[in-house]
Design goal:
By secondary structure, the chain is an alpha+beta fold. The protein is built from one helix and eight strands; from the N terminus they run H-E-E-E-E-E-E-E-E. Strands 1-2-3-4-5-6-7-8 form an eight-stranded antiparallel β-sheet, with no helix packed on it. The longest helix has about 35 residues.
């Protein structure tokens, strides 16, 4: 009977080499798993920022149409809602000359009701008629 020993390496030596190789693969696999776990854990630790900074935030519906806009303009901050054809429906804002304004718009984008408070002045209300002329305007 003849021994088949390719390469002239004994069976015990081949098994020892394979066990050593296997040990290195287990070690490398454990190191990769540990590194990946650390990346995932560190990524989860800071997933919620405490502050969001932007000049404008726009909320859109499923069709991509603008519905709400929060913006900082040169005149002051503005929060507005918009209907389907992007006509303004309501707006809340403040500027250098006013403490704040709240305006509701009709379906064509014209101001329907306006409430405002100026700096150092009395609050005001505006109710325009269908023709656009004020039905009621108080300072």
């Amino acid at each position: 009977m003849t021994d088949h020993d390719p390469g002239g390496i004994g069976l015990e030596r081949r098994i020892a080499l394979l066990e050593n190789e296997n040990r290195w693969f287990r070690f490398a696999g454990a190191a990769v798993l540990l590194f990946a776990s650390g990346v995932v854990i560190l990524g989860q630790a800071n997933s919620r920022p405490a502050t969001i900074e932007a000049r404008e935030i726009v909320l859109r519906d499923d069709g991509g149409r603008t519905r709400v806009r929060l913006a900082v303009t040169p005149e002051g901050p503005v929060l507005g809602t918009v209907d389907g054809p992007e006509q303004p429906r309501a707006g809340l804002g403040a500027s250098a000359g006013s403490a704040g304004d709240l305006t509701f718009f009709d379906g064509t984008g014209r101001a329907g009701v306006g409430l405002g408070a100026g700096v150092g002045t009395d609050p005001g209300i505006l109710l325009p008629g269908v023709d656009g002329n004020p039905l009621l305007a108080r300072p």
